[in-house]
Amino acid sequence: MTSEMQANIAAFEQTLRSTIALGEAFSPEDWKRPTDCPGWSVQDVAAHLVGTELLLLGEDPAAGHVMAEEPPHVRNDLGRLVEPGVDARRGRPGADVLAELRDVLDRRLAALGETDSEQPTVAPTGRMVPYREFMVFRAFDCYIHEHDIRRAVGRPGNLDAPAAFCARTIMESGLPMIVGKRSGAGTNRTVVFEVSEPVPFTSRIRIGEDGRARPDSGSGAVSVSGDVADVTLRMDWETFMRLAAGRCAPTDVKVGIDGDADLAGRILANMVLTP
Fold it and tell me: Residue 121 in contact with residue 131, Cβ under 8 Å?
């Protein structure tokens, strides 16, 4: 197993164990609190985590269960894949779902110990990646859902977990698409994202003459060549994470804007990178 695979598995494990520890203190009311995931309670998010890992173990998370009807919050094929496993657990106590999450995590970690780091696997993006890279996506997904749960129950923490850096890798890689394809920025435009604690980074995206957006060299609003950004967006890490994961509207959070306010609005309206 490569060191990269080990680190990604460790990040995945840490955020799930943090979620499990959080759930051990939940009341029955906590399990039923709504989250930022449409149609899902805290228990539903935990059930989704269980179901995904069961699928990856080659097991059916909804074995023998038939949904009465497709819920209105199911919008795509991914939703149709995961919802039966969630629905199958809605009638159970939250503590039982938590126990199942604890068990499936242990079984997944055992299976991952025997997994080839270079094994080709389909990523959520649809492309084939080595398993070490696939585990970045798993750590990212579990981290996002940990914080769905934490916000729902009002118990913040673990924002700077190792999995946060997996989340940053995936979300930052999507910024050229947001700026270049979705915002209608035009050519020869530069956009800077300045994200602050607890996972600070600056990402400068430049749209060239060919209309393609690419990461650009430089730091902050001015590049090495002296080029000034058309717009700079400043926000903390949790705001960036929530926007990129589709957990809030731009009007729900505080974002500092320097430069072209209209372009900034179009970028923020098209920040969602998750299905």
Answer: yes
